[in-house]
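quick one, 221 residues, struct below
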Amino acid sequence: MARRGVLLLSGGFDSPVAGHLMARQGLDLIAAHFSLEPITDDAAAMKARTLCGILGIPSLCVVRVGEAFAEVAQKANRRFYFILTKRLMIRLADAIADLESAEVLVTGENLGQVSSQTVASLRAIDAVAHHPILRPLIGFDKQEIVDRAKAIGTYEVSKGPEICDLLGPPRPSTHARLDQILAEETKLDLPGLVSSCLSKLVSEKFKANGPPAPLPPRTAG
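---
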């Protein structure tokens, strides 16, 4: 079992529950939040800070990716926006994992909920990762995730609209091939985007709240 992981923490329901499940397995977590600032305000980053407190995660890395995501939306085929930006986040999370001596990445992805979470899309996302990606919610349905968010105390913070699709297309691709994604990435200065985003990384430390509380067993159905 890996001992240290980077949790890609958004302001939604999924990633906090994923982090809680992995913490119960003994994984020490560092949270990484990718903020759309300056396109948006810092509300999502503030939610991430609050979620770290609830989950007992002692370290949060906030990376401002708004300008980089806008460049992706402008220069690449917008049908692939969600996969391209997710691959960029994985590159950044890999770099944070190296800095923090983490062995794995943890995401809240679960199969089929959004365009970047089909089998084809997940394959394209996995292809760029240098660390194993753990997806503890892969087979969960949305209601089950919401129920677990209520049980661990993150529901009230996570509810409300998410802004992750602010720059995305109305009809994104759901079955992108890796060769298509690689072709789109040639339109981007990826090393420059990664370097620019990492230069805006802010690391914050919190007091840990102790081990995560247990959850009731997962129900069938």
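The longest strand covers residues 28-35.
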